[in-house]
Amino acid sequence: MLHRYLFSLLLIFVTLQLSAADKLKGYIYDNNNEPVIGANIYWETSRKGATSNGDGFFEIELTDKHEHLIVTFTGYVTQSIHVHDTDEELKIILEEDTQLLDELVISRRSPGTVTQRDALLQTQRVTRGEIHRAACCNLGESFETNPSVDVAYSDAATGAKQIKLLGLSGTYVQMLTENYPNFRGVASPFGMDYIPGAWMEGIYISKGTSSVKNGYEALAGQINVEYKKPQTMDKFSLNLFGSDALRMEANADASIHLNEGLTTAVFAHYSNDTQSHDRNEDGFLDYPKTRQLNLMNRWNHEVGKYVAQYGVRYVNEEREGGQDKTHMTIDDPYTISLATNRGEFYTKQAYVFRADELAESAALIASGSVHDQQSRYDRTLYDVTQQNLYLSLLYEKDFSHMHNLSTGLSLNHDGFDEQLDNNSLNRDETVLGGYVQYAFNLQNKFILQGGVRADHSSRYGFFITPRLHLKYNPAEWIHLRGSLGKGFRTANVLAENNYLLASSRRIEIADRLDQEEAWNAGVNATLYIPAGGREITLTGEWYHTRFLNQVVVDVDSDPHAIRFYNLDGGRSYSNSAQVELSYPFFTGFTFTAAYRYTRSMSDYRNEATGESRFLSKPLLNDYKGLVTASYQTPLRKWQFDLTGQFNGGGRMPTPDSSNPLWEERFDPFTVVNGQITRYFRNFSLYLGAENLFDFRQANPIIDAANPRSGDFDATMVWGPVHGRKIYAGLRYNIPRY
After folding, report:
1. How far apart are CA 453 and CA 211, in angstroms?
2. Which CATH number, 2.40.30.10, 2.60.40.4130, 2.60.200.30, 3.40.50.1100, labels domain 19-93?
3. For residue 64, how many other CB atoms are within 10 A of its CB?
4. Fold type of domain 225-734
């Protein structure tokens, strides 16, 4: 009996040893020697795979074939490793992918917003980990923990949201998806709601003028959204969300690897927020009832040195705002309705001539969209259909480690079929241009990039866009950046501001509005200071934007009108200064504090009197402070997130002197958000609260009791229009490896 027992123990021991011998083990770390959690490790041909755990550790079954080991993690350069000794434990260091915005880039899940250390442009990467720190049902809700970008409601009736960056409205921020321009014109007021948070791999935010590769716009900065990639995303993921306001959302996506070179993914989103809410009892819905269906399919094809991507997308959305017909009887209610249908396609075709240290490649990017919006603002009809086509041909070559040249051609066409009541505002614009850009790199300590574009607009003729970027590292822990550049933009005043129709103000549009033109200059210093075995990241920046010409949106010269006219030699500028500090005080804990001061001024001209006043721009916070903290317990079981936004006061539009219905300024206010997440093997549960202390702007709608009076205005929004929201959700995934 004893012999059998000893034999059994010996057999188990030998079996375990043989099993262990059949596996390769190792650890995955990043540049800072921190473990990389969730990296994909697989054999190149057999595709047997594994993922790294909370310590960066992995083990993978050995293969009988002679294969390279592939290690991938989004946001890092893919490693292909020849394993010489399978008995030796590996230590693999992943290098960060720094080809931001200029390449087809993706982002990874990490515990916060990451400042790109090696990027030439001052760029922040909002990782999937950061996106998951809040409810983040869409792009517009992804910046709650970001100190640089503000997102707020544009009015209290339609639910339109507006980004603000460097003290300028979102129309001066170039929006990109997958590195091509998107959500321009009529899509800009509601476009952030068209990007579900569950679809995003990461968000890249760059301030100031960007590379001339991406066009002549981006006067204030650039935001690029990268979707999940078919070749790296999970096999299947599901996100379910619900709030105490009975807002329900569902997101699902799945990827299929048809063969080694062909992958595809499908994405689906449905949201329903159709309950009536009127907490301030002014007779109007606090925010509109909405229903949205959003579908996308994308493909990735790789054959040798040729890479291709394709994608199609469809969005259907219905919005209904105005007076609350559910809780009160109104014979002839004031209502607002918007019905939107949007279709998109895109393709990227790239050929890599050389993929070694001296790269050389050519690429073609093509995208198109049709956006149809049928809307009614009470008795005012506004219907618009915008058709967009974008083409970009790019060539890039490294002549040496020090010299890089890129050049290309682009074409952008916008066609508007626009009707305001019985007035036709149809127009077309085609812009054909080319660029050349040179980069000088001295051992990554000093980088200079200069570029120039020449474009021809069918409406405005020829114009030249020069841009310059510098980066200097006097020491390993000091990174200095500077930028100077020009930008141009065509203002589509009604398409981009149609939410302003939610008022009784007259719409006055000057004839022959000129192209907007501005210079932007900025400096940035980022310090990486060792402290307590960890690293403090301290960033300071200043940006100045000065308009040579601007289409002024004037709600000051007449309290009963909205006027659009050219600056015509007047003054308009914006200054933005920000300081930000991040430090991981202990394992699993991250902390960020930031403060931003903004001063944005413009001339406002009264046509009746000829008088001009130089005023700060209305409904803009003078400052913003942000403190955000996140703690993740060992073994990644629980995560606790808390964010405080400290918003400064600001100037209101000038009220009617004979009958002032609002104050000249609004006061500072604070908004606090929190969330708790419980992680399991393949799913997580989260519970959170937005606007924890229930702060609301008291009366966002002026003269709500008389919506057809000359004083009615739903566009005087400076703070939250809804109070505290409690939400909960589930995230589930089936990993690829």
Report:
1. 10
2. 2.60.40.4130
3. 6
4. Maltoporin; Chain A (2.40.170)
In this predicted model, which residue has the larger pLDDT, 82 or 693? 693
Domain boundaries, the chain: 19-93, 113-224, 225-734
Contacts of 443 (CB under 8 A, 6+ apart): none
The predicted-structure confidence for 698-718, as pLDDT tens digits, reads as follows 989 999 999 999 999 999 999
* 463-487 confidence digits (pLDDT tens): 999 999 999 999 999 999 999 999 9
What is the rounded radius of gyration, in angstroms, for the C-alpha atoms of the chain?
A: 27
Alpha helix (H) residue ranges in 483-570: 493-497
Report how far apart, in Å, the C-alpha atoms of 541 and of each of 168, 174, 452, 613 are: 16, 20, 25, 29
Taking the CA atoms of residue 670, residue 702, residue 496 and residue 721 in that order, the dihedral angle to the nearest 10 degrees is 30
Quote the mean pLDDT of the chain: 89
pLDDT tens-digit readout, 115-144 = 667 788 888 888 888 888 887 789 988 898
3-state secondary structure string across 647-700: ECCEECCCCCCCCCCCCCEECCEEEEEEEEEEECCCEEEEEEEECCCCCCCCCC
From the list 209, 220, 225, the residue with the least C-alpha distance to 142 is 225
Q: Give, in words, the CATH class of 113-224.
A: mainly beta
- DSSP letter assigned to residue 13: H
Residue 88: partners with Cβ closer than 8 Å, 6 or more residues away: none
Amino acid at 586: F
Amino acid, res. 239: N
Strand 173-177 and strand 221-227: the pairing is parallel
Q: Tally the C-alpha atoms within 13 A of residue 514's C-alpha that lie toward its C-beta.
A: 13
What stretch of H or E contains 18? helix 2-21
Backbone angles phi, psi at 537, to 5 degrees: -105, 115
Looking at per-residue confidence, does 152 or 411 come out higher?
A: 411
Rounded CA-CA distance 398/357 in Å is 8
Q: Is 278 helix (H, G, I), strand (E, B) or coil?
A: coil
Per the CB < 8 A criterion, the answer to whether 178 and 106 are in contact is no
The confidence band for 14, taking pLDDT boundaries of 50, 70 and 90, is very low
Residue 411: predicted pLDDT: 98
Q: What percent of the chain has pLDDT over 90?
A: 71
Q: Looking at residue 499, what DSSP letter applies? A: G
Q: With CA atoms as reference, report the closest residue to 559 among 624, 697, 653.
A: 653
In whole angstroms, what is the distance from residue 596 CA to residue 623 CA? 5
Count, in order, helices (H) and strands (E) of the chain: 3, 45
- 101 or 342, higher pLDDT: 342
CA 54 to mean position of chain CA atoms: 28
Residue 696 has pLDDT above 60, yes or no: yes
